[in-house]
Design brief:
Chain lengths: 158, 220
């Protein structure tokens, strides 16, 4: 199994994940709330509506994404440090903790349900990732080179 | 379209003249083929040529004394742009963007959160039970922290995008780049509020960018 060389080692990768998730959320929120504000505004004020919707909502979406990604990365690193191994269970456990800690102010039942939901979501994502990995490995499996066609013996000339 | 104007005529004539007399210049053909064709007569002479079948060069791990070249992975290379060295080693604009935005967002979140914490402590209703006190403090933290964090994060995101674009256009990075990127960021951030707030925000962001450059040059 090859290591992922595009990601940094654990303590600093949390910062990068915070920023990456935040950037993703802000850019996605710009598109989403831009379209939503444009459609929900009356004719003649559509561009103004789009801009004000982006200004009001896109940073919030970015913040939600960023907090989720950063917390997940933090828990992922913590779980890695405790378990001292890397497998799909890391992400699932980190997802459980993330979902739980984000919902902790809603009471015990809300925390539990949110944690289970988040863990299941991460489990599905990890499963799909494993499937893709298997598929890529199956596609790139070593093949025997085709044997050359047996040539009929040429009659000797001259 | 060079074939219309005959731009390649000289090249083709050169190539054809070289093809017509391939073996006239011995040293040239030796350079291109790697051996002297006039000396090769049969297979055994090729095999017995010194250096052709050297065991130490054919081994799969040959050439290790030059260093482990196959470990020089492409995607792990650090950015080679002039003046792009920062506090954390960076592989390019995506790293700058992620680390810059994440760090500024976290700092904003922490500052806003601590401000909200003290504000909440001051605003605790008198003679309230512990649960209400905790709730008051948490409400103030979650009101102040994410607001400041989000705005700081958006500023950092815009700044990093503009900065990396200017870097890419100019091919190098220096303090003037950062200041210009900061000024543009402030102007864009307040662009819907009118000219005067735009000017203020622009100046503040340019000053912040200049301060960051100074800090970076001081630390590095």
């Amino acid at each position: 199994m090859s290591a992922d060389h595009t990601r940094d080692p654990c303590p600093v990768v949390i910062l990068s994940d915070f920023g990456g998730a935040f950037a993703m959320g802000v850019i996605g929120g710009c598109v989403w709330h831009g379209i939503k504000g444009f459609r929900n505004s009356p004719m003649g004020e559509r561009h103004l509506g789009a801009v004000s919707a982006i200004k009001a909502r896109a940073p919030v979406v970015g913040g939600n994404f960023g907090v989720w990604g950063g917390l997940f990365s933090t828990f992922d690193c913590a779980v890695k440090a405790v378990r001292k191994r890397e497998d799909p269970w890391n992400a699932i456990i980190a997802g459980l903790f993330t979902g739980g800690s984000l919902a902790v102010r809603g009471g015990w039942r809300h925390t539990r349900n949110s944690a289970i939901m988040c863990g299941c979501l991460l489990g599905v994502m990890e499963g799909v990732g494993l499937m893709f990995q298997r598929y890529a490995a199956w596609q790139a499996k070593p093949m025997a080179p085709p044997l050359p066609e047996p040539q009929p013996a040429q009659p000797l000339r001259a | 379209m060079s074939w219309l104007f005959g731009g390649r005529k000289s090249e083709t004539s050169n190539a054809s003249s070289a093809a017509e007399e391939p073996f006239l210049n011995d040293s040239e053909s030796q350079k291109s083929l790697g051996f002297d064709p006039s000396q090769v007569t049969n297979v055994s002479s090729i095999i017995s040529t010194p250096g052709a079948l050297d065991v130490s060069r054919l081994h799969p791990l040959a050439g290790l004394e030059r260093g482990v070249e196959y470990l020089d992975l492409e995607e792990e290379k650090l950015s080679t742009m002039e003046g792009s060295r920062s506090l954390i080693p960076s592989r390019g604009w995506t790293d700058d963007l992620c680390y810059g935005t994440g760090a500024v967002y976290l700092v904003g979140l922490g500052l806003g959160g601590s401000y909200g914490f003290f504000e909440g402590l001051r605003n605790i209703p008198p003679n309230s039970p512990g649960k209400l006190q905790l709730n008051t403090v948490l409400n103030h933290i979650t009101r102040r922290g994410p607001f400041i964090g989000n705005n700081a994060g958006v500023l950092a995101l815009t700044y990093n995008l503009i900065n990396s674009s200017i870097d890419g256009l100019r091919g190098k990075h220096d303090a003037a780049n950062s200041v210009v990127a900061g000024a543009l960021t402030g102007a864009i951030f307040k662009s819907s509020k009118g000219l005067k707030p735009m000017g203020y925000a622009s100046g503040m962001m340019a000053a912040a960018a200049a301060g960051w450059c100074g800090l970076k040059s001081f630390v590095l």
